[in-house]
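Quick note —
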Amino acid sequence: MNKKLKTIIEDIFKMDSTDLSAVVDAIKMRRNQLHFADAQLFKVGDRVSFAGRHGSTLKGVVEKVKIKYILVRTDGGTRWNVPGSHITKEKVNA
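Predicted structure written out below.
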C-alpha cells in the first residue's frame, strides 16, 4: 500500500457520518465513470472473458454494449450483464 493511500484510509477513520457519506458518493461516481469508459472499449462480436459467480472464469461474445454494462452471451448459452471494467478481451487466434 502506498503512502498516499494509507493517509486516505487513516483520514476516513477520522470522519463523521456526513463526511463519510460524501466520500462514498464520490467513490460511487468515480466507479460509474470507470465502468462507462471501460464499456466503450468493447463492440458487438468481441470475444471476452470475465469472473462469474464463485470465481469461475466465463467466456463468451459481446451481444450489446450498454452505457456502463456489456451484455455477454457465454459459450454455455447464458446471458450476463457485466460492468465494462470486469471484462477482458480475448486474444483472437489467427
